[in-house]
Records
---
Amino acid sequence: MQFPGRRKKLIGSSQNDLYDHCLQFYGQPPLENISLTEFETFAVERLKLLKTVENLGVSCVKNSEQYTKKLDAEISKFFFNKEDGISEYEKRRKDHISHFILRLAYCQTEDLRRWFIQQEMDLFRYRFNDLHSKHKTDFLHKNNLKYETVSAEEKKSLQDKLIASSYGLSGTKVEEHDVYKVPFQDALDLVRTRKVYLLAGNAYIPHHEIVTIVLNDFRTRLSKALAMTARSLPAVQSDERLQPLLSHLSHAYVGQDYSIQKNIGKISLEQIDALSGKSFPLCMRHLHKALRENHHLRHGGRMQYGLFLKGIGLSLEQALQFWRSEFVKGKVDADKFDKAYAYSVRHMFGKEGKRTDYTPYSCMKVILSNPPSQGDYHGCPFRHSDPELLKQKLQNYKVSPSGTNQVEDAGFSLNHPNQYFTESQKLLSGGRDIKKEVDMSQRSQENPASVTRPSQANSKQAHEEMGDLDSFFQDE
Amino acid sequence: MPTSDYDPACLPDLLPLYYRRLFPFSQYYRWLSYGGVSKNYFQNREFSFTLKDDIYVRYQSFTTQNELEKEMQKMVPYKIDIGAVYSHRPSQHNAVKSGTFQALEKELVFDIDMTDYDDVRRCCSAADICSKCWTLMTIAIRILDRALREDFGFHHLLWVYSGRRGVHCWVCDDAARKLSVAARSAVAEYLSLIKGGEETVRKVVLSDPIHPFINHSLSVVERYFCQYAIVEQDILGSKESVDKVLALLPEDIKKDLTVYYQEEKNPMKRWDRLCTLVEHKKSSIKKGGQYFDKEIMLQYCYPRLDVNVSKGVNHLLKSPFSIHPKTGRISVPIDLKELNTFDPFEVPTISLICEELERPRADEAEDDDVKDKENEQEAGERRRIRDLQKDF
């Protein structure tokens, strides 16, 4: 991969050729010199954009009005330049360069890659859908997606079949809008679920679904490119000017996965009750309390809490003792525990089945997968709980009323329950400076439960009802 | 399947004869070389053999037709499977750097096994087949052959009798051989309509609008259904099987039919009544579950394929022209033009064909006769091979 700083300067007149469409697949890396300042600014701003894409994807229904409005605003911010009138060329250049810089930061691990691809795809999907129909076709052609549109006669003769196979198609739609002929190998998701008309090896894709095809292509290309970038990364990382920035970028926003257990055995079982009050994030505290009270947790809760405990340093033996002693106080006798539940604890530690050493869940995972239902205690209280109840609970935990209303910036972004634990422990043992303004004394009195969560909006209702509490959840 | 001639104990004597005189090596080699367009295509192909006493050997590969012949005559495999074309010669896979030995291409294959229909056939079960349930294979071939050709645009399909209880399909197009795992699994799922195992009662659920593929498949099923299911399988005959059918219907229709069937014993009339009631219900509700009769037909007749067989690029499948050790039958190609008259019980067994070979030839006529029998099975294959050769 070519790297800025080692290439010739760009000639002015070919500007327009380089960026002949507002969207691109990021196939070719940038070939110009760029200042370190611009390098850093572009990267950080794109990262903010992607982070917004992620948060909006979690808190709003994609393509809802709210989603569209907010994302639009963020994209405008990204392209906005303090000087008057940023040109189209400059917008596209920023888009291009910032994407490639972030590739450097996000190519290294599977998790980073997955995150980056997901957000870039969501961003691309939004921008592509926003395009005028003609520009969509333009884009396809310019990128060698040689998908022909079906002629009017063929559309007419196949009309009934098209309507019977594709979602959201009517007679008028078929007539008015384009239908694309795509080799079936490029439309596997639609083929697999039989949601498309197939003839002679081609899938007949209506206009509104062509974005799915394009996205598949986008994902494949980006995935391959990231793998290649990872291979040339050592050369880049040896550049001292860039190394600190790149590692800051990838850590600040995605963070560790706590899969490698540090401090195994440093925590004793007797400490857990006390720790839960001091250094557990709200979700884990909640789970711990439910476990102590009911002497039981369902599967979702066992997984979320059990893996968290593994992440803070509990060994397998300790975990087995912990769960057994609690369950035995309830309806489960020791025998049954050993038969039914011990297996799943061992499984969590990678000692059973396909021996995957499961990683503790990140906040995103807790929020997005497996929402709790009746009788469950897992999930994220900031997302899954009723706001009033949540407010009450926080007050119970001695977060002062002003604390629930204030936004406090601890100088890092919280993405993982185990991160919360680690930072909290650091704080309590006095090993860390806090960058922004925080009242230290208030902090040691209250629980660190007042540390902010990244922007989450529970629901429209929450927005309307909560007012103050709402701002608690916003990043800025 | 009773074959009075065939005795598995004779295999050690018959197989060497079969491999020396009858196995169509030159057509086989020509098929698998695909015109020599890709370098080392035949040489990098994996074969697996099951030898006497169930000894299984994988990663067999051969450099020439001659070597293939010699090895087969030497090892005398009881079973032969064909696998994928790899990046290197399979027989040397241990010498290759770990991670670089990979399956690159293979025909897209389908395996239809009669045992997968045990919940809907009454005449036989497990490995048994009879002329009554063989219709299921006919239906499967017609439906899948049409779909693979018309929907997916494939041209070179080889249908083969497995030798005991099913059929295989080898899709040999260049595009098919290059399909990824994801693509193969997508094709197989597109072709699957029967969902659910032991626990599921209603295995087919149709909703509006009905996809053209399903409509095409239904028209095939409808051609055979009455004769096959109502008459031969008698699914509306005994109480037990009637109950199974009724279990697929909503309460109100079920009640009505239970009463009606107390009087009416004629299965055709019973089926007609069922269809009428479903039709009635359809026009009275606005949406949902209007196709009970079609669902029943599909559940009893639609092809059941094993997605796992089709998915894997490196999956090994029984070779055409190999012998099935349990029945002695040769895995012969099926000519779709003669599909309606194909009879699995008429397929030559190894003992039959060897016996014919051994018979002293009195005159020309008999000679031709024997040759005809030998060629009969190969004719179909040659036709297929000729088709395959056209493009390669």
---
Amino acid sequence: MSEDDDRSPPLDLRCGAAPSINRARNCSGEAVSGSGSSTSSSIPASVPVTVTEYQSQYPDQVLEIVLENVLQFLTSRRDRNAASLVCKSWWRAEALTRSELFIGNCYAVSPDRARGRFRRVRSVVLKGKPRFADFNLMPPDWGAHFGPWVCVLANAYPWLEKVYLKRMSITDDDLALLAESFSGFKELTLVCCEGFGTCGLAFIASKCRQLRVLDLIETEVTDDEVDWISLFPEGETCLESLIFDCVDCAINFEALEKLVARSPFLRKLRLNRHVSIRQLYRLMVRAPQLTHLGTGKYGPSEVAQRQGDTEPDYIAAFAACKSLVCLSGFREITPDYLSAIYPVCANLTSLNFSYATITADQLKPVICNCHKLQIFWALDSICDEGLQAVAATCKELRELRVFPMNAQEDVEGPVSEVGLQAISEGCRKLQSILYFCQRMTNAAVIAMSSNCLELEVFRLCIMGRHRPDHATGEPMDEGFGAIVRNCRKLTRLAVSGLLTDRAFGYIGKYGKLIRTLSVAFAGDSDMGLKYVLEGCPKLQKLEIRDSPFGDAALRSGLHHYYNMRFLWMSSCRLTRQGCQEIAQAMPRLVVEVIRSDDEEETDNYVETLYMYRSLEGPRHDAPKFVTILR
Amino acid sequence: MERLLSFESDHLRATELRLGLPGSDKPSVRPKNNKRASSEISQESKSNSCASNAGNDDERDSAPPAKVQVVGWPPIRSYRKNTLQVQAKTSESELCRGMYVKVSMDGAPYLRKIDLKVYTCYPELLNALENMFQLTIGKYSEREGYNGSDYAPTYEDKDGDWMLVGDVPWGMFITTCKRLRIMRGSEAKGLACV
């Protein structure tokens, strides 16, 4: 359920990547095939090698063999990156043993280059468009095509098992190629992607016989009117996770029911809104072993209201799911049916009500039982009162997200500083918060900064632009300043409300671990951006919109841009010339100037600047509205 | 600098509720909120902020100027917006249908239905009931209920209990009222004495 989580998903290191230890090497490090198959990667590390063999070779080789075996255990890509920089032989050994390939920007490196370095990849994570594309700030067809990647992957990694794509543009043909090319393919996760339809899903369902995970999260899928659910192979499946709540197409329920019945390993199931609650009941009865459940439409259908129809025992169905720890869905909710989930509340660690328009009174009887809850997403319809109830019970809460029911600016908001304060006092272990509100005070934000010292992610969205502290009329500088000063583990920050350069001064001075920063409608002058670029050494992703930062500020980051994944600046005060200077000063930076489709470039200011480091230079698939500056 | 989409302002004006005689186009003067789309003016807005925030609550009553919406703000993904919109439409259509509750009157052969959403306070509701059933209900007093009249309005709340109409604030009443029953005065006396 991690929306916009930029950490790579947990993946197992496959033992199959163990290198052959019978391979001999000469002193310049060239791999020479020795006795035994040098290309096979299935020889376990414990196969004994005779002592005489070792003694006759250079001692370096022993070290290399040891290294390869040790490197197997390095899973973190950051550790591996560091190891690969030690020396050439470490670089080589690491490249041979890396099985999880993580590419944070699909344009930073070409598929061929990736394939050339890493020979034994089992899992690929690819990320494409920058996050602000989600909010219609980027015209469609900008890029991030999966096509070129899947072609290369198909040739290079026949043993590929897992693909995770985020904000990529995927076609049905891409999915067809994927399905055909990897006989052992196990996991496909698509987050915030688009470009394909149920046709593509049909390929995956029918051809990937070993499929364990098919997760579609906030991905647009067009309805090609293909019954993809019925195309899963007959007989017992390996399915462990099937998430399709965002696939807004009617589902062949009989086929789904049969699929669930023949999937004994199924643990995660998230349905779309076309599955009624009665149908949900039938599925739950067949799959009481579920750990993660996303309901479809959570309310009676017209059918149920016919006289004489008895409702199924929903409470019993939930009670039978003894392993259930994560609940979500609840679309088009009829709150009366919420009582059915009482039996599972005590075990829940994750509850997603962010599509459920429920009030505080409707939330309370549920939440008061959720003592183990760690992740809670909700709509602001629960009001400050609902948040107070959460704070009173959920002492283990790690992550809170409060979304607005009414995403407009000038409306009365049901949540405010009161809710934030309550959460900060009740949920001391909080690590991550995303909070949409109409009004806020510095005092509440400061309170959170001193109460929730474990905070790593603080994203506050005061929906009214330039809105100051509701109580004092002051800018929100001090609140955000306290967050960066007190929360020593903070890595991600999103600011809002009325902010002066002072806020950015605080961020630059104290935000030493910040990797992602989102800024909108904030700051007074170039100094704001300068503080950040000069002060935050770990900054990787900086996205700014509608703030008065210009060319001088841009220049102040020249020392740092190669260390960043990207910089996004839209509707700021950048001129084409200013951006050009950066492009000329930094040859390995791709500097894209993006216009909206129909606008001529009459304004002196650049509408959108998107720049990122890349080993490949300007991309060849840039559409007409993108100009790459050289 | 920003891309702005304008609302259908004419549409809004046609449906707005205003104080004033029908036909008069001039809205009552209210302190306008200095909501501006450009970030250049943040300095000014600091000083205006207090006034403009105070004006926020009133803003809905005054004639809304052609509202501008900024692209991509607040930062909610369209998937989420669309999902909630679909749900809002379903519940909106329910809202349009109104909050109809059954009304029974002791001795009447059949029940009636009224839309609670149409009324804004108890006197309006009681007036409507009096008209509908051709009777007098009389004045409410906390101490004596509807003493002095032949009938007393009661309602069933969401817990299934029968309550006297008028005890709780109107807002709470319309969310908890499931059905109404107009009791005969003699029976109702028992209710008021409790």
